[in-house]
Amino acid sequence: MKILKNYKELSSTVADIVKRQLKKQPLSKLVLPTGDTPLGMYDELVKRKLDWSHTITYNLDEYIMNPDHPCSYHSYMRKNLFDRTNIYPDHCHFPYRPTLSFEDKINANRGIDLCILGIGSNGHIAFNEPGSSFKSRTRVVDLSLQTIQDNSRFFGSAEDVPKQAITMGLGTIMESKKIVLMANGDHKLQILERAMYDGVTEDIPASILQRHNNVEVYYCD
Ligand code: F6R
């Protein structure tokens, strides 16, 4: 785990990793997160004026809701990255039903080169909540009360947060060639340390990353 000076350094460090990936292999397949943590990284990526015309993206998750709703992850990605680059909209994928055909699409495009993750305050990655099977694939999940509470800041109130989502599974994420996890803020430090240094357990989904052979973790407080 690398501790960085501040949020700016966290954002530019991870943006540089994405930049190197796209330069090395324009036809890269990336998995991307939403939430507060990656916002600075998306700004940095836009500043780098990269050529996204050959890149394929998959988002980690999406609420079960109208994708045109302003709080959907489709809207978030359009606003923060897709509409600010030359990526082709039909190269940008979100988990959908039937979930197995989403997985088929990943496989047909020959897997995932680089997966960027955040971590939830309960140790979730994507919307794989505590207790998710390490073998899980893309599926519909119920959000935990903790996640509904945490994400109410985007919706105004907990009642307005969708109670279900579609998420890439832990098994799916672990098949990525490289994984980068970014975390920002003191409130994430304790769960991050448990995930990285304590036992590997389905109670802390992010702890599965200890079993991946090409993972980098970046934190700033
Ligand atoms: C979102 C996602 C989630 C977030 C996590 C942290 O696509 O996969 O696992 O990464 O909930 O969210 P923030 O960055 O808002 O603290």
Tell me which ligands are bound: fructose -6-phosphate
**What is the makeup of the main sheet?**
7 strands, parallel
Strand content: 15-25%
The dominant shape is globular
Question: Could you describe the 3D structure shown?
Answer:
The chain has about 220 residues and is of the alpha/beta class. About 35% of the residues lie in helices and about 20% in strands. It contains seven helices and ten strands. The strands form two sheets. A seven-stranded parallel beta sheet has the order 1-10-9-6-2-3-5, sandwiched between helices. It has a three-stranded antiparallel beta sheet with strand order 4-8-7, with no helix packed on it. α1 packs across α2 (about 40-45). The two termini are about 15 Å apart. The model has no long low-confidence stretch (mean pLDDT about 95). Fructose -6-phosphate (F6R) binds near residues 34, 37 and 118. Fructose -6-phosphate binds near residues 34, 35, 37, 120 and 125.
What are its keywords?
single chain; 221 residues; alpha/beta; seven-stranded parallel β-sheet; three-stranded antiparallel β-sheet
Strands, helices and their partners?
Blueprint lengths: L1 E2 L3 H18 L4 E4 L6 H9 L8 E4 L1 E3 L9 H8 L11 E2 L5 H10 L5 E4 L21 E4 L2 H11 L8 E4 L2 H5 L3 E7 L1 H12 L17 E6 L1
Parallel strand pairs: 1-10, 2-3, 2-6, 3-5, 6-9, 9-10
Antiparallel strand pairs: 4-8, 7-8
Task: Summarize the structure in short.
Helix 7 (186-197) links the parallel strand 9 (178-184) and strand 10 (215-220). The model has no long low-confidence stretch (mean pLDDT 97). The protein is built from 7 helices and 10 strands.
